[in-house]
Structure formats: C-alpha cells, structure tokens
Amino acid sequence: MNAKNNYIYHLIAILTVSIWGLTFISTKVLINNGLTPQEIFLLRFVIAYIGIWFISPRKLFANSWKDEGWLLLGGLTGGSIYFLTENTALGITLACDVAFIVCMTPLLTTILALLIYKKERATPMLIGGSLIALAGVAMVVYNGHFVLNLSPLGDFLSLLAALSWAFYSLIMRKLLNRYDTVFITRKIFFYGLLTILPAFLYSPWQVNLSILTEPSVLLNLLFLGVIASLVCFVVWNIILKRLGTIRASNYIYLNPLATMLGSAFLLSEPITYMMVIGAGLILGGVYLAGRKKT
Question: Is 250 exposed, middle or buried (0-12, 13-18, 19+ CB in 10 A)?
C-alpha cells in the first residue's frame, strides 16, 4: 500500500516539475509583451493568493510568532527572493548558465540537509544519481555549445536563487508536520507578495493594465497563477512531506527537460542528439537518486 502510494507521489512530482519547466516559456511571452520580472511575479502570486482563499482554512496566523517567522522566511526564499534573483540573472547573463546553476538546487539541498540534520544520510546511489542528472542538465542546456561566459553578478544571482529554493525546501520540512499544507502555501503566497513590494521602489510599475486583457497575456498569467503557482505549490509541499526533502528535490533536474520538450512543441525549436543524450542522463540519474536501498 505504502509502496503504491509512493509510486503515485513520484509521478505527481514529475508532473509538477514538468509544469514548472513550461513556466519559462510563459514568462518569456509575458516579458516580450512588456512586463517586468517583478510585475509577472506580483500578478501570478496575486492570482494564486486570491484562488487559495477558496480552499484554505480560515486560520490567519501560525500557532506561534516563531512559526510565523518561519513562514515569512518561506515566502522570501520560495517566493520573492527566488523569482527576483532568477529572473534578474536571466537579464544579465546567458539563459543556459542560469538554468544550469539553478539546477544545482538538489545538490545544495542535500548538502544543507546533511549539515543541519545530523541524522540525515545520503547514499552513494543518491549522490551518484544526482551527479549523473546534473551532467545531463549540462548537456541539455548547453547543447554542445559551452562557452565560458564570466558574469560574476549574473552567476551570483543564479546561485542565490538555487540556495534560496534549497532553504525553502528545508523550511517546509520544518513546518509541514505541524500545519495544513494549504494553510502553509497561502502564507507563502502572502509573504511572497509582501516582500516583493520593495522591488517596486527601485523599478516602479510601468505596464498598462489594458494589456492584461490581451488573450496571450491573460492566458499565460492564468497558467502561471492558477496552475504553476496555486496548484503546483500546494502539490509540491505535499510531495516534500511524502517523499522527503532530498528525494523530492532531485526531480528539479527534470525542469530543463520539460522546457526542452515544451519549446519543441510550442515554439518549434529543434531537439539535437546532444539534448537527447542529456535527457537520457537526467532520467537515469533521477531514477537512481530516487531509489531506496532494500
């Protein structure tokens, strides 16, 4: 029974990360329509926050101010800091560099978990599978055209985004056994929205609201807000609880694979043999990392 349930959670994790892999395409469409990264983040989280109130418990605060502080940190690390650093890095350095560095998140999550939780153990198969998957990510995102592009600020922001999501995963590990998953996600949306507001002091809101009625903009915002944020954040927090932080995080390696397939079908971008080999390494690595010793 438990094995069957875990199998289902693994499949849901794959689906969730695959959806997140498609968000790059939607974000690209919105940026091409004149929206800035912080405007996109604000709009998608507003949509998600409004939507989650229909299913969330009416509980307003955590059981203690300490836990409320952890939820604030969750909104920062899994919301405003992560999205702002990643999207800003995309405007500074090569997209392939950003994609590769951000996909180091599972490794960083494993390292942090081993440092913080003394009882945590990483098996050779988990570490080996993770490294194989990371090598596959490199083949997919660079596609055989690796060019050394030193961009200290862009690379630093990308690494900060990866670290931010790693910390978010560990914060969720701390809270998920004490609070309802939907309540936690609602608080993450709230604090994500609250902590993104200072960014508008540096770069004020510029987009004309009338553009939001255009079908391409509206549909992509709804996809980002309802599917990629509201649904996927709730589901991902459940996955973290059921599969464990380290094993669940390894599915993030599938993100560029989903982007590759989405770009091929939606944008007619070619898939090369190098990307196919990389995809095979990603799938094999994730499978090995997800296996448990029997």
Answer: buried
